[in-house]
Amino acid sequence: MAYELDGKPISSAHGGPVRLYVAPMYGYKSLKWVAADHPGRRPPGRGYWEQQGYDADAWVGRSNGRSDEPA
After folding, report:
1. What is the band of 65 on the pLDDT scale with cuts at 50, 70, 90?
2. Between the N and C ends of the chain, which has fewer C-beta atoms within 10 Å?
3. Which residue from 53, 56, 10 is spatially nearest to 33, judged by alpha carbons?
4. Residue 9: pLDDT above 90?
5. Per-residue pLDDT, 24
6. Could you give the angle at the alpha carbon of 67 between the alpha carbons of 22 and 51, nearest 5°?
């Protein structure tokens, strides 16, 4: 969970006061607003971005065919 962005509290416009940060995954895997915490539980089915053709795992590089390490 992230509480700060660039050393300042996260604003509501950026998902504050707390935002889930999932690195090194693409941003569409990070939640903007957190309503509840249920560790280890996965939502059923595919989410919006997966339905649009995005990779379900979303690892930077691997999910789009790159073999180099994420920056």
Report:
1. low
2. C
3. 10
4. yes
5. 74
6. 50
- Cα-flanking dihedrals φ and ψ of residue 12, to 5°? -60, -35
Q: How many CA atoms lie within 13 A of 14 on its CB side?
A: 12
Q: Which two tokens stand for residue 16?
A: 């504050």
Q: What mean pLDDT is reported for the chain?
A: 75
The C-alpha atoms of residue 13 and residue 43 are separated, in whole angstroms, by 24
Could you identify the residue written with the tokens 């989410």?
A: 47
Phi-psi category of residue 33: left, alpha or beta, with phi > 0 → left and psi -120 to 50 → alpha: beta
List, as one string, the DSSP characters of 1-68.
-B-EETTEEPPGGGTTT-B---TTB-GGGS-SS-----TT---SS--HHHHTT--SS-BTTGGGT--S
